[in-house]
């Protein structure tokens, strides 16, 4: 007698398994991108503050006579607009290419693009490709560089 949750379908062939895996992958990439963006922006702000603290504090002030907004607000607004334009532009371009191709799913789109674009020939590697340590890799690179000179 089977217990609750047991099925005759093998584990790798569940229909929702691939979809769930894609969702998890998308969430991972989105979170990695967001963290990278925040980290890079934070490091840049920190470097600017470290270079000239007095000017940085003047730029972050909320009100200064003759200046309608602070440098920090201006930078954040510019970053927001640039992000919107770049993501929107790439998304629009991708949508236009997708619709012009007439594909209904990713497999059809891949097939159509591969038939249009030229194939890139694969070259056989003439050198080594497996190394046990970083030191072995660097020694190999030094030897190869010496041969070419």
UniProtKB/TrEMBL annotation:
The keyword Transmembrane applies. The keyword Nucleotide-binding does not apply. It is a multi-pass membrane protein. Its main location: mitochondrion. It is found in: Mitochondrion inner membrane. It holds the Pfam family DUF1358. GO terms for cellular component: mitochondrial inner membrane. Keywords: Membrane, Mitochondrion, Mitochondrion inner membrane, Transmembrane, Transmembrane helix. It comes from the Eukaryota. The chain crosses the membrane at residues 27-48, 78-98. InterPro entries: TMEM242 (IPR009792). Belongs to the TMEM242 family. PANTHER family: TRANSMEMBRANE PROTEIN 242. Scaffold protein that participates in the c-ring assembly of mitochondrial ATP synthase (F(1)F(0) ATP synthase or complex V) by facilitating the membrane insertion and oligomer formation of the subunit c/ATP5MC3. Participates in the incorporation of the c-ring into vestigial complexes. Additionally influences the incorporation of subunits MT-ATP6, MT-ATP8, ATP5MJ, and ATP5MK in the ATP synthase. This is Transmembrane protein 242. It comes from Patella caerulea (Rayed Mediterranean limpet). The lineage of its organism: Eukaryota, Metazoa, Spiralia, Lophotrochozoa, Mollusca.
């Amino acid at each position: 007698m089977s217990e609750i949750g047991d099925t005759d379908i093998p584990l790798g062939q569940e229909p929702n398994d691939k979809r769930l895996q894609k969702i998890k992958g998308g969430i991972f990439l989105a979170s990695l991108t967001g963290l990278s963006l925040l980290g890079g922006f934070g490091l840049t702000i920190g470097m600017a503050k470290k270079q000239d603290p007095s000017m940085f504090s003047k730029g972050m002030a909320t009100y200064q006579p003759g200046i309608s907004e602070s440098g920090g607000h201006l930078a954040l607004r510019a970053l927001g607009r640039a992000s919107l334009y770049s993501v929107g532009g790439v998304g629009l371009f991708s949508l236009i290419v997708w619709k012009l191709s007439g594909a209904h799913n990713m497999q059809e789109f891949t097939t159509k693009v591969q038939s249009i674009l030229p194939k890139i020939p694969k070259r056989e590697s003439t050198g080594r490709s497996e190394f046990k340590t970083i030191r072995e890799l660097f020694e190999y690179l030094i030897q190869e560089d010496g041969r070419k000179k």
